[in-house]
Amino acid sequence: MLRQIAPEEMPGNVFRLVGSDWMLITAGPPASHNTMTASWGGFGVLWGRNVCWCVVRPHRHTYGFMEHNASFTLSFFDPASRPALELCGTRSGRDVDKAAAAGLTPVESFVPGSTHFAEARLVIACRKLYTHDLDPSRFLDPSIDDNYPQRDYHRLYLGEAVQAGIRA
Q: What is the pLDDT of residue 130?
């Protein structure tokens, strides 16, 4: 069970949370959602609001769910859940029920119409505020383009962190 907290009470090193521990980006209600593992994203303050950002490539199944839903969640797990995160990062929701295959339990999140997982240790529920397609002509460091051999540039999703929860 998660205890609700204000987003600014979120514990931990955000660089480690995203870059090393990984997260699941999830969009859609429990009856029709998709999730994917991510290690790119961040947290901050913009427009006087607590925000989270993540990126999704257009070919990912989660992309359509992010486009058609007003909210998304970022879920973080204990190290023992690493195999579940690896599965959710390597399998497509087009082909498999990732939550079932990974042993995760989808539940209604803090924002109605959004999903997080009962096994998460930390969840941030976000209301979408802004999207933007990454433009390679704006890369100031040319080596960034090495991340895109297929030229499948991400769409950035910026969301207001409206509620958070931590394992009680």
A: 98
Q: Is the separation of the CB atoms in 155 and 62 below 8 Å? A: no
Of 142, 126, 40, 131, residue with least CA distance to 89:
40
Q: How far apart are the first and last CA of the chain?
A: 6
* CB 146, CB 138: distance < 8 Å: no
Cβ contact 152:63 at 8 Å: no
C-alpha atoms less than 13 angstroms from C-alpha of 81 in its C-beta half-sphere:
24
Q: How many other C-beta atoms lie within 10 A of the C-beta of residue 6?
A: 11
Query: pLDDT for 78-117, tens place per residue?
Result: 999 999 999 999 999 999 999 999 999 999 999 999 999 9
Residue 12 is predicted with a pLDDT of 87
